[in-house]
Amino acid sequence: MKQIWVDADACPVVIKEILFKAAQRTHTSVTLVANHFMRVPSSKYIHLRQVPSGFDVADNWIVQHCEAQDLVVTADIPLASEVIAKGALALNPRGELYTESNIRARLNMRDFMESLRSSGIQTGGPAALNQQDRQAFANQLDRWLVK
User: Fold this and answer.
1) Are strands 97-98 and 89-91 parallel, antiparallel or unpaired?
2) What is the per-residue DSSP string for the chain?
3) Whose CA is closest to 90, among 1, 20, 5?
4) Cα separation of 51 and 85, whole Å?
5) Neighbour-count burial for 16-31, b at 16+ CB within 10 Å, e otherwise
6) How many other β-carbons are positioned within 10 Å of the β-carbon of residue 104?
7) Residue ranges of domains in the chain
8) Among 28, 85, 87, 38, which Cα is nearest to 58's?
9) CB burial class (10 A; 0-12, 13-18, 19+) of residue 57?
């Protein structure tokens, strides 16, 4: 049975709301994994798994529990890489589907940007999530749900 796992600590509220509506509409299980409590709608399809605080604890929990063909919602590229290696799919909140064919390039770019930041170069952060991003996310989610 299809399962959606959400790296919930950094997931934008608007994306969670899209996921909650989709869970109810399609009767698909959505589990938010976070290291702090957050409110989720009362539904047999929506779950919160609170894990202990710590570096990559939520990520590791998702990797341990996801299965092939599950969907993992995350902006964390190393997490995306790990779940792809297990046969799951990874979708970021901007609607970009990470795949075996593009994850290596994303990891390389992430590492490059991290090395720039660690050398003191200001790289800026990502742009605010906009309507196009939300629509791209919803479209990718719908494609996965109908498979």
Assistant:
1) antiparallel
2) --EEEEETTS--HHHHHHHHHHHHHHT-EEEEEESS-----S-TTEEEEE--SSTTHHHHHHHHH--TT-EEE-S-HHHHHHHHHTT-EEE-TTSPEE-TTTHHHHHHHHHHHHHHHHTT-----PPPP-HHHHHHHHHHHHHHHH-
3) 5
4) 23
5) bebbbebbeebebbbb
6) 10
7) 4-146
8) 38
9) middle
pLDDT tens digits, one per residue of 27-44: 999 999 999 999 999 999
Token pair recorded at residue 83: 């779940």
Strand pairing category for 71-73 and 3-7: parallel
Q: pTM for the complete prediction?
A: 0.88
Is the model's pLDDT at 52 over the cut of 90?
Answer: yes
Residues 6+ apart with CB under 8 A from 70: 2, 3, 4, 5, 83, 88, 89
- Give CA–CA dist 52/36, Å, rounded: 8
- The CATH fold assigned to 4-146 is Rossmann fold (3.40.50)
User: Position 95: which residue type?
Assistant: G
